From TrEMBL:
One Pfam entry name: CM_2
Residue span(s) of domain Prephenate dehydratase: 94-270
Role, per record: Catalyzes the Claisen rearrangement of chorismate to prephenate and the decarboxylation/dehydration of prephenate to phenylpyruvate.
Protein name per its UniProtKB record: Bifunctional chorismate mutase/prephenate dehydratase
PANTHER family found in the cross-reference section: PREPHENATE DEHYDRATASE P PROTEIN, PREPHENATE DEHYDRATASE-RELATED
Keyword Chaperone: no
Species, as recorded: Aestuariirhabdus litorea
PROSITE patterns: ACT (PS51671), CHORISMATE_MUT_2 (PS51168), PREPHENATE_DEHYDR_1 (PS00857), PREPHENATE_DEHYDR_2 (PS00858), PREPHENATE_DEHYDR_3 (PS51171)
């Protein structure tokens, strides 16, 4: 058979498969609309359309049953977008993120909710919390820890005064690039803008490639990218989204010192998420300043064999609490063995706040 004929046959096959996929996606969307009608029929004006535990289960199942040739992550990303579009038919989800447009936090929001979500930039982490608390948006996305630079204290501190719940987590591989605008004189770069964390994450690379260039910390990487549009002697360190948004040229890619540099983000909202089958819980515990306090606090977790994924200490912002510990662990508060440990921790702490149980990041 001629090459032309072979291509024609294969493309006819692809056209027919596409028609089937399209019909099935619309069938699925109709089901989601029916689900929405059932949720609304309860008469609850605050019916919950977004169900993090169900989404995690759907995505995990997609990955489990995948047999290739597309890899499981790629397949899950496609389903992520299908579900995002189905949810938008039920009710468009509005998500506040630490802006401006083009930040890694926006990339995390889109990774988690898919591109049918409406993402709204905020100028600070505090503002993301406030918008969700005020009900102006359904959810918020804030960074919480970076594998190279550690915890983002500002996010943790916000939980001390907030009644919001954590309803999800997202992990994002962070790649930094050095970029310039079309007016930049590449041989005359005298200043490099970026967020302080990003400058820190690229410190060694900067020391060896641009040792004498001034490093200027700004509010976000996207702000750095925006600034260099009008400065011929400046460059910026930012991610792909910012490079695309501001049409910048990447002159050095993946310049982060740690190749596995990643950031964890939290989804904050008002809902308590049921079990998904693979969950994490975050709590905040206040202890009095006395010897062995942390040991006493952690003992029930050890006895019950619960896997701790993070322990952070913050100074309390009220006189009454001396230390505040932020602890993440595997499990859901609805599981009896976790509920029992919470009871024990509550008895020895001066205060215990369960920030939320939520599905472990799938993608
Ligand atoms: O199962 C539901 O509750 C749905 O609304 C359907 C669906 C989906 O498309 O699969 C959509 C949105 C929810 O966040 C979870 C799942």
């Amino acid at each position: 058979m001629s090459e032309e004929k072979q291509l024609l046959n294969l493309r006819e096959k692809i056209d027919s498969i596409d028609a089937d996929i399209q019909r099935l996606i619309n069938e699925r969307a109709t089901c989601a609309q029916e689900v929405a009608a059932v949720k609304q029929a309860g008469g609850d004006t605050d019916a919950l359309f977004y169900r993090p535990e169900r989404e995690a289960q759907v995505l995990r199942r997609v990955m489990e049953r995948n047999s290739g040739p597309l890899n499981s992550e790629e397949m899950a990303r496609l389903f992520r977008e299908i579900m995002s579009a189905c949810l938008a038919l039920e009710q468009p989800v509005k998500v506040a993120f630490l802006g401006p447009e083009g930040t890694f936090t926006q990339a995390a929001a889109l990774k988690h909710f898919g591109h049918s979500a409406v993402s709204v930039p905020m100028s600070s982490i505090d503002e993301v919390f406030r918008e969700v608390e005020a009900g102006a948006v359904n959810y918020g996305v804030v960074p919480v820890e970076n594998s190279t630079e550690g915890v983002i204290n500002h996010t943790l501190d916000n939980f001390m005064d907030s009644g919001l719940k954590i309803c999800g987590e997202v992990e994002l591989r962070i790649h930094h690039h050095l970029m310039v605008s079309e007016t930049t004189r590449k041989d005359k770069i005298s200043r490099i803008y970026s967020h302080a964390q990003s400058l820190a994450q690229c410190r060694k690379w900067l020391d060896s490639h641009y040792p004498n260039v001034e490093r200027v910390a700004v509010n976000s990487n996207a702000e750095a990218a925006r600034r260099i549009k009008s400065e011929w002697h400046s460059a910026a360190i930012a991610g792909d989204m910012a490079a695309e948004l501001y049409e910048l040229e990447k002159i050095a890619e993946k310049i982060e010192d740690q190749p596995d540099n990643s950031t964890r983000f939290l989804i904050i909202g008002t809902q308590e998420v049921p079990e998904s089958g693979a969950d994490k819980t975050s709590i905040m515990v206040a202890m009095r300043n006395q010897p062995g306090a942390l040991h006493d606090l952690l003992e029930p977790f050890r006895t019950a064999g619960i896997d701790l994924t993070r322990v952070e200490t913050r100074p309390s912002n009220t006189g009454a609490w001396n230390y505040v510990f932020f602890i993440d662990f595997m499990g859901h508060v609805d599981q009896p063995h976790i509920a029992e440990v919470m009871k024990q921790v509550g008895a020895s702490a001066s205060d215990l706040k369960i920030l939320g149980s939520y599905p472990q990041a799938v993608l």
